[in-house]
Amino acid sequence: MINKLTVSDLTFGYTGQDVLHNFSMAIGDGQVVSIVGPNGSGKSTLIKCIDRILDPRSGDVQVDRRDLFKMNRKDAARRIAYVPQNSLRAFAHTVFDVVLMGRRPHLGWKADAQDEGNVWEVLRLLGIEDLALSFFSDLSGGQQQKVLIARALAQETGVLLLDEPTSNLDVWHQIDVMEILRALVRRQRLTAIIAIHDLNMAARYSDRMLMMKQGKILANGMPDDVLTPDNLEAVYGIKATVKRIGDSPFVIPLSRVPANSRGRMG
Amino acid sequence: MRPALLRSTPMLSRRIPGRRTRTGKMTPAQQAHAISVQGKFFFLGALLLLLIISAGFIISLGQVPMTVQQVYLTLVTRLIPGGFAVDSMISHVVWHIRMPLITGTVMCGVGLGICGCVMQAVLKNPMASPFTLGVSSGAHFGVSLAAVFGITFLDGPYFLVGNAFICAALCSGFIIALSALRGASSETLILAGIAVNYLFQAANQLLSYIADDEQRTIMSYWGMGSLSDLNWHSLGFLGLICLVCIPFLYRNAWDLNLMTTGDDCAKSMGVDANAVRMAVMVTASLLVAAIVAFTGVIGFVGLVAPHIARIIIGNDHRFLIPASGGIGGALLLIANAVSMNILGGVVIPVGIIMSMLGIPLFLYLIIRGKRREFWS
User: Fold this and answer.
1) Mind listing the pLDDT tens digit for each residue in A236-247?
2) For A161, which of A46, B102, B121, B239 is 20 to 30 Å away at the CA?
3) Distance (Å, rounded) from C-alpha B131 to C-alpha B292?
4) Mean pLDDT of A193-203
5) Contact predicate B280/B299, CB 8 Å
6) Which stretches of chain B drop beneath a pLDDT of 50?
7) Rounded Cα distance, B94 and A45, in Å
8) ipTM at complex level
9) CB–CB contacts below 8 A, A to B
10) Which residues in chain B touch residue A138, judged by CB atoms under 8 angstroms apart?
11) What is the pLDDT of residue B168?
C-alpha cells in the first residue's frame, strides 16, 4: 500500500515533559483513520504538529513523500487541511466568506470567478448552498461543522485532519458528519485523519484505528483488532465488553479499574 | 456578440446578476451573493462621492464667506491656470488655508480608521484601536520632553512633531519587541501595550508635575488634538507615509480575514499568523505615529470607524479596510467642521468634538445594533 502520510520521530513538548516523544506512524491512501485515546494522550497535539500549527522540536512529516516542514506554509496548506472543533471566535463572517478562506493557499491577491465557482461547488456537495449568506455564528453546531469541512475541501488537499468533529453534536449530526466524511474519502480519494473520543462512532466509520496513550501508539489496526477488552483496560483503565453489531465492534463500558491496580494514577 | 464581449471583460461580467455561468444559470443563492457584493461596491462608491461633495461644502464654511461653486472654480483654476476668473482673496483662503486643512483632515481620518481596523483584526479584539500599542502616550511623552527640558530631536519649526513621532515610534517598537520575545500572541501584545501605556502616562504626569504653567499649557493643549497646524509641507510628509503604509496594509486583507478566525485556522490555511501580525503592527504604528505627531491625540475615530463599517458592510477586509478609512475620513471631516464653526471665530480642538459627537453615535450603534454580534 502507498503511504500518503508518514510521521517520523516527532517530538513535541509545551514546557517540561514531552507530549509526543519520537512519535512515528504511516497512513495509507484513501482511508478514514481514527485516533482515539484518553484526554491528554496527545491526539490533538499530534494533529496540530502535523499541520504545523504547533512547532515540533524534532522529527518530520511527509505527504506524498514530500517533506512538509521544509515547504513554506502556503505550499503545505495545498497538501493538508485542518478542520478545527466547531468553534470560531472573533468577528462574524458569512458562510460563503468562511469557505472562500479555504481558497487562500491557491490565491494570488484576488479571488477570481473560478475560486468562487469552486466554493459554490463545495457548498452544493455538502448541501449547504442555501446557507451561503447566513452568518457562521448564527448556525447550529452541526451546520458549523459542515461549513468547516467545506472550507477544508475548498483547500483541495489530499489529506484532511479533523479535531473532534463530532463533539458537541447531537446523534443525528454525529452520524451525518461521519457519513459525509466517509463518502468524501471514498469518492474523492481523500485521506481523513480524525481525532475522536467516541469509540463506537470511530469503530463504525474508520478503516483503521490508532489508540494512543501518553504520546505513544499502543494499538494500531482494524477497529476489530484495536477495540479489545485488554486494550481498553490498558489505555483507558476500564473494564468493558466488546460486542459486534452489524459490521463493527461496539464497546460497552462496565466499570473503571481502581487506580492502584493499574500502576498509575488516573 | 454580446456573450463574447462579456467573456473578454471578466470584471464587467462578474457584476451583472443573472449572468449565465459555465454550469448554466445562477442559482438563487448565487444571485443573492452577487447582489450583496454589488451592494458593497455601491456603498464604497457612495462613500467616496459623499467625501468629495461634503469636502467642497465644508471648505466653503468659515469666516470668509464664499459659495461652494467658488470653491470648485478655485480648485479647477489651480489645476488649469487661467480657466476662470477667481477672486484672489478667496483663491488664497481656499488653496493655502482651507484646502490643506481639509485634505489633511481626510488623510488623518482615513489613516486612523484603517489602522484601527487592522489592529482589531490582528489583535482579534474589538477594543483595540490605533493607540493600543502606546502611540499616544509615547507621542505625548515626546512633547513633554520638549516642553519641560527642551530636549528635541529635530531643529526648526517641526521640533515638536519630530519629538512626538520619534517617541511614539520608539514606544510601540518597544512594545512589539517585548511581545516578540514571548511569541507575539495577541494577548501578549495587548497586555504589554496597556502596561507600557501606563508607564509613559506616569512619566507624563511626573513631567507635568514639575512643569511650570506655560509648559503645562503646551502639554495639555497638545493632548486635545488639533488639525489647525496642517499645511502643504506637513501634508507632503503625511501623504508619503500614507502612500507607503496603506497599500501594504490593504495587501494583507486576505490574511486578516483568515486571522480573525483564529491563529490555528490561519496557520492551517497557509498564513504565518505571527509574521503577519508583526508586519501589520509595525506598519500601522508607523502610520499612526506620523498622524499623531502632527495632530495630537484624536483617538476615538480609530475605534469607532471600523465598527460602523463592520455594521454596514460586514467583516470581509477587502471591503472593510476601504470602508473604515472612508468612514474615518468622513467622521473627522464632520467633527472638524463643527469644531471650526460652532463658536464663530473660536476653534475648539477637534479631539474634544470628535469624542463628544462620536461617543453618543457609537453608544447608539452598540445598543441598537444588537441584531447581529459582530464580535463574540
Assistant:
1) 999 999 999 888
2) B121
3) 10
4) 93
5) no
6) 1-21, 373, 376
7) 64
8) 0.86
9) 112
10) 372
11) 86
